[in-house]
């Protein structure tokens, strides 16, 4: 590349979500058109990591103005080159649109979705090219490692992390500094540090985005951790479903070795440390730390009894620290800016920020990083843009299959470890699934149980068999055959499974059921007593009916019905035979006169 | 494929993985991944046998590991392995219709392979792309914002590409 003066930079999001929405062809057109107009020496196109607003992808931000474009297509890219980059006129129709559809030609930093965020773990996402170590270094990358190696003893590093209040972001929230200290204290000829990148909680994708968008921050965090505990080897255990993350990690490790941040005698000191990638093979339970270690060792990934804890006897029996991706990405900024700075963000017991993945019935799905203690309402409405289609929010599910739901009346809860626990759910890895009035909470609970049944490793009978029985009971209830005894049995089983299972998967599997029972007991009762599904979701409990007042007899529904359940003469009201109808819903979609509705019972 | 050829290939893969690994004793799963990639989305019995010999492990041990992980297959699979996400965020945003469209377009159910040997349909838990739910992966490529129409178009395109 020539060293021409760069007038503009087009930052294109090359996070997994944007790629799957067609980013590659957009980038190609940007580059082609720039060449065509001989702009390629003054306009630089850079691929970055996830910008967070994944549902608007493919995304691009054009600097120096910071103009934010959404939902790009090859056609859009061409127009933007011709209009914006050549003539200096932003192209309105592709600009970011606010919740009300108004157009914003403002810079990215001023948009509500970005304005409220405080980015620490995701500081480089969407800003740097993740495949270029120089860009990471240009944003103070590896300075923390240098500082640690040149100026701090391992004990000082541990003290710093301890006083920052950083807690694990992988689910359990264990204090990171304390974990490191426990491992440091165990004498051994070899120790390991493992990065847990098995991210399996449905709805969570922050680890993926960090690995894809800023892999060096994880490597640096691991190197600092390794120095603190006295480890010479590290492993990153990534799930095989994340090929892009694996590719970018491989590039990053290669570059870090070249620059001497990994390998023998790092930065001329006598500290040596190297990292390898291990790839999972599709087993959720491998995210549990003891199962993960078994998997690295080439065994079936089944959990074992703790103690001994990994810090005592981990990988191949050696003291081992296992930390989550997001936890590690927080480490370099804490070292550089100090524990005081980090501890000044967040609440009394939950320090710093948390990355949340917003999904489900929410306008702005995607990734956000906010200070701990923000209210759920702010998170959902101010940042997430609220619920689309004017429906009412019913509940927010947090913590995935180990968690529970927070009903609408508790929207003002502060999001931190303790407050969520009080409401009967957990922070988990930070996945948040927003549900509206169309979602049946019994169905949701059934769905999570289905996940557990699928993912139980089979070692403990309560987890393996008990969850199946719970699932069958829920199946019975959602098909209108449940009884009060079934509800009681569900509660008993829940208690038993959580007490008698070995690992977190089994222990927390009943949570979605307990939590929905706690807040939506009336829905369970409606299913059991009235054979009614209030959300009109459970197929066995609903019927489709045609309102003869509204039906004009256009025959559209009869033609679309796959099982010929609809009869009626042309221009006369039609009728649905509930015996034949399979509740597919197609007729309701095609009726232009709003004559078809769902009823329950 | 003849047995001698498989043996030779597995041996090469094993040596390669070993040489890239900093630790010993943890190469099994990596090797299985490579073998699976090499033989087209499954692990042939001959390959498992060869590997057992090379690593000096009982064959049962190899299968014990192999069968635990859903990503490994002992049966031949299609050239394109489709993994469609069935987790909550995809489910509540129309995933069900997408799954049905896939089954219909391919004419197969989960864990089956089309007669032409092109496609195998499997389900997956969250693929970490919930921002663009519903989502599926075809081999290493992810596809987001799926609708029944898009699913059909994608499959048709792959089929068309094969027919050429
Ligand atoms: C069934 C199960 C699955 C888990 N999955 C993950 C995971 O995908 N990622 C993760 O970081 N931690 C996961 N954990 C938690 C880990 O066991 C461990 O606590 C964590 O990696 C520690 O890192 P941290 O202290 O930095 O959070 C899981 C735990 C259980 C019981
Ligand atoms: S609780 Fe379930 S997942 Fe955990 S070890 Fe027991 S059977 Fe396996
Ligand atoms: S819901 Fe489906 S099966 Fe029932 S009448 Fe309508 S189109 Fe036919
Ligand atoms: S992947 Fe592009 S914004 Fe998330
Ligand atoms: S739930 Fe489908 S990708 Fe996350």
Q: What does this entry look like structurally?
A:
The complex is a heterodimer of chains A (601) and B (164). By secondary structure, chain A is an alpha/beta fold. Chain A folds into five domains: 8-112, Glutaredoxin; 133-342, 3-Layer(aba) Sandwich (Rossmann fold); 353-436, Roll (Ubiquitin-like (UB roll)), CATH 3.10.20; 441-529, de novo design (two linked rop proteins); 542-599, Alpha-Beta Plaits (2-Layer Sandwich). Chain A contains 24 helices and 17 strands. In chain A, the strands form five sheets. In chain A, strands 10-9-13-11-12 form a five-stranded mixed beta sheet. In chain A, a hairpin with a 5-residue loop joins strand 9 and strand 10. The model of chain A has no long low-confidence stretch (mean pLDDT 93). Chain B has helices at 3-20, 28-38, 45-55, 59-68, 88-106, 148-163, and strands spanning 80-85, 112-113, 119-124, 136-138, 141-143. In chain B, helix 1 (3-20) crosses helix 2 (28-38), helix 1 (3-20) packs across helix 3 and helix 5 packs across helix 6. Chain B has a five-stranded mixed beta sheet with strand order 2-3-1-4-5, with helices on one face. With 164 residues, chain B is α+β, with helices and mostly antiparallel strands. In chain B, 43% of the residues are buried. In chain B, strand 4 (136-138) and strand 5 (141-143) form a beta hairpin. Chains A and B meet through helix 1, strand 7, strand 9, strand 13 and helix 17 of A and helix 2, helix 4, helix 5 and strand 5 of B. Bound molecules: flavin mononucleotide, iron/sulfur cluster (SF4) (2 copies) and FE2/S2 (inorganic) cluster (2 copies). One iron/sulfur cluster is lined by residues 544, 560-561, 563, 565-566, 576, 581-587 of chain A.
């Amino acid at each position: 590349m020539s060293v021409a003066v760069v007038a503009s930079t087009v930052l294109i999001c090359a996070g997994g979500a944007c790629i799957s929405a067609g980013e590659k062809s957009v980038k190609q057109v940007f580059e082609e058109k720039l060449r065509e107009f001989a702009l390629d020496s003054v306009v630089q196109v850079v691929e970055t990591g996830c910008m967070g607003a994944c549902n608007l992808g493919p995304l691009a931000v054009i600097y120096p103005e910071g103009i934010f474009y959404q939902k790009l297509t090859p056609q859009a890219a061409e127009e933007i080159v011709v209009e914006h980059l050549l003539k200096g006129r932003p192209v309105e129709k592709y600009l970011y649109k606010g919740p009300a559809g108004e157009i914003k030609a403002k810079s990215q930093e001023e948009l509500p979705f970005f304005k409220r965020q405080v980015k620490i773990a995701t500081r480089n996402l969407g800003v740097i090219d993740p495949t270029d170590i120089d860009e990471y270094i240009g944003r103070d990358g590896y300075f923390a490692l240098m500082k640690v190696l040149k100026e701090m003893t391992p004990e000082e590093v541990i003290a710093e992390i301890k006083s920052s209040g950083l807690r694990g972001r992988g689910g359990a929230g264990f204090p990171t500094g304390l974990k490191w200290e426990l491992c440091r204290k165990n004498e051994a000829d070899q120790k390991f540090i493992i990065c847990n990148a098995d991210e399996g909680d449905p709805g969570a994708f922050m680890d993926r985005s960090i690995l894809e968008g800023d892999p060096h921050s994880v490597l640096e965090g691991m190197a600092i951790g390794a120095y603190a505990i006295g480890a010479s080897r590290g492993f990153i255990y990534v799930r095989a479903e994340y090929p892009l993350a694996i590719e970018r990690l491989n590039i990053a490790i290669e570059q870090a070795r070249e620059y001497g941040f990994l390998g023998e005698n790092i930065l001329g000191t006598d500290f040596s440390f190297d990292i390898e990638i291990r790839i999972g093979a599709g087993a959720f339970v491998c995210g549990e730390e003891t199962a993960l270690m078994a998997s690295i060792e080439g065994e079936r990934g089944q959990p074992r009894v703790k103690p001994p804890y990994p810090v005592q006897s981990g990988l191949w029996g050696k003291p081992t620290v296992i930390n989550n991706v997001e936890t590690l990405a927080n480490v370099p900024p804490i070292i550089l800016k100090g524990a005081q700075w980090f501890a000044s963000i967040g609440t009394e017991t939950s320090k710093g920020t948390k990355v949340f993945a917003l999904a489900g019935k929410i306008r702005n799905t995607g990734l956000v990083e906010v200070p701990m203690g923000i209210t759920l309402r702010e998170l959902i409405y101010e940042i997430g843009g609220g619920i689309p289609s004017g429906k009412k929010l019913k509940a927010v599910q947090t913590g995935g299959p180990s968690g529970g739901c927070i009903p609408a009346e508790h929207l003002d809860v502060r999001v931190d470890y303790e407050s969520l626990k009080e409401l009967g759910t957990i922070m988990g890895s930070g996945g948040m699934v927003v549900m509206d009035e169309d979602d049946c909470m019994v169905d949701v609970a059934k769905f999570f149980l289905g996940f557990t049944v699928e993912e139980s490793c089979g070692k403990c009978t309560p987890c393996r068999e008990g969850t199946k029985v719970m699932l069958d009971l829920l199946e019975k209830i959602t098909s209108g055959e449940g009884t009060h005894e079934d509800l009681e049995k569900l509660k008993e089983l829940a208690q038993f499974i959580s007490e008698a299972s070995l690992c977190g998967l089994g222990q927390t599997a009943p949570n979605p059921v307990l939590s929905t029972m706690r807040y939506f007991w009336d829905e369970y009762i409606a299913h059991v007593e009235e054979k009614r599904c209030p959300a009109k979701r459970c197929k066995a409990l609903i019927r489709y009916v045609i309102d003869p007042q509204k039906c004009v007899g256009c025959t559209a529904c009869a033609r679309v019905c796959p099982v010929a359940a609809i009869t009626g003469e042309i221009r006369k009201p039609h009728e649905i035979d509930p015996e034949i109808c399979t509740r597919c819903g197609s007729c309701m979609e095609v009726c232009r006169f709003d004559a078809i509705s769902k009823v329950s019972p | 494929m003849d047995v001698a050829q498989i043996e030779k290939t597995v041996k090469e893969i094993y040596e390669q993985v070993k040489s890239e690994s900093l630790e010993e004793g943890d190469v099994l799963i990596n090797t299985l991944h490579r073998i699976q990639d090499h033989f087209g989305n499954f692990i042939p019995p001959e390959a498992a046998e060869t590997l057992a010999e090379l690593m000096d492990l009982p064959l049962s041990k190899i299968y014990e590991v192999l069968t635990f992980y859903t990503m490994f297959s002992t049966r031949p699979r299609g050239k394109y392995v489709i993994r469609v996400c069935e987790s909550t965020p995809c489910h509540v945003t129309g995933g069900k219709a997408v799954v049905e469209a896939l089954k219909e377009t391919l004419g197969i159910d989960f864990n089956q392979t089309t007669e032409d040997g092109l496609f195998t349909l499997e389900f997956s838990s969250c693929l970490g792309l919930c921002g663009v739910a519903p989502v599926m992966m075809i081999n290493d490529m992810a596809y987001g914002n799926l609708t029944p129409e898009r699913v059909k178009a994608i499959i048709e395109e792959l089929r068309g590409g094969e027919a050429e």
